[in-house]
Amino acid sequence: MTLNDIPPLNAALNATATVLITAGFVFIKRGQREEHKVTMLCAGVISALFLVGYVTHKVLKGAAAGPGEALHTQFGGQGFIRYFYHVMLFTHIVLAAAIAYLVPRTFLFALRGDIAAHRRWARFTFPIWLYVSVTGVLVYFFLYQWWPAAS
Fold first, then answer.
1. How far is CA 39 from CA 20, 44, 101, in A?
2. Which of 72, 111, 118, 127 has the fewest CB atoms within 10 Å of its CB?
């Protein structure tokens, strides 16, 4: 595995988490609590694996960077799409930082059996987690597939 293999792997993990988060939501709306629990725990594990991959990529990219070389991946789009990308990226980063606290906290309520608190927290954790997961996949496509920077 090379440094360049990590971003598509991370995008696949994010996409998988998106599917699992959505399925977990559908399960709980149908009253299928056990399926919801298993699916959401799997989404949490997949998201944690993504985080490990993301941090690993940043560390390895930093170690491989030459003097004066950017540690982040440059975006190649211009005009409106550049503005759109940066707004999406900013909201993704801010909300991803929040998710690092919100998801474990929401899980903790469920695992402790405090379903009332779990529901209260899940009402805002779910849409934020889903947004972060979806925009994570979009960031990958914007940077590496649709508008890569000229090398």
1. 6, 9, 19
2. 72
Please check whether residue 57 is in contact with residue 6, taking contact to mean a CB–CB distance below 8 angstroms: yes
| Domain CATH for 15 | 1.20.120.80
Question: Can you give the pLDDT at residue 122?
Answer: 96
pLDDT, tens digit, 9 for 90 and up, residues 34-76: 999 999 999 999 999 999 998 988 888 776 666 666 667 788 8
Cα–Cα distance for residue pair 14/1, rounded to 1 Å: 19
Residue at 151 is within a domain: no
**Encoding tokens for residue 147?**
């508008």
Q: 14, 133 in Cβ contact below 8 A?
A: yes
Domain assignment of residue 58, given as a range: 3-146
3-state helix, strand, coil in the chain (%, to 5): 80, 0, 15
**Residue 38 φ then ψ, to 5°:** -65, -45
Give the residue from 46, 55, 41, 32 showing the smallest Cα distance to 133.
46
Total number of domains constituting the chain: 1
Q: How far apart are CA 89 and CA 56, in angstroms?
A: 20
Distance CA 119, CA 117 (A): 5
pLDDT at residue 69, rounded to an integer: 64
